[in-house]
Design a protein that fits this description.
Layout lengths: L3 E4 L10 H7 L3 E14 L4 E5 L6 E8 L7 H7 L12 E10 L4 E9 L14 H6 L1
Parallel strand pairs: 1-6
Antiparallel strand pairs: 1-4, 2-3, 2-4, 2-5, 5-6
Amino acid sequence: MSDYLFLYGTLLPNQAPGEVSALIRKLRKVGEGCVRGRLYDLGDYPGAILDAHSDTSVSGEVFALPEGQSILPDLDSYEDFDPADRRGSLFVRERRPVSLSDGRCLECWVYVYNRNPGKAPLVVGGDYAKYKAA
């Protein structure tokens, strides 16, 4: 059984910085997807606040994690997520249902922003790649 990862920001293949790009290349793309919530522009990166009852969504891509090798601890480190200190982590990694563009729904790991976004601008439309390109 595959584990899946939903990416919406700086971990996307065309956005990933050098320190994680080799890890991202190990992922196999499954498809485009979205998850209910809001996406904020936090400056150098976006942050998703997920809410199953939201009327807005965060767009991204779903990837299958490589079998037999765990890259999640390295991605956790990049995202400033410490499983032993969820409260103190900038992002937390949670399993959430993600709707794929082909109609499937997959349980995926998602990095969720773990702070109040304050006055950070909302990424209208929830698509960080399009937002950055505009």
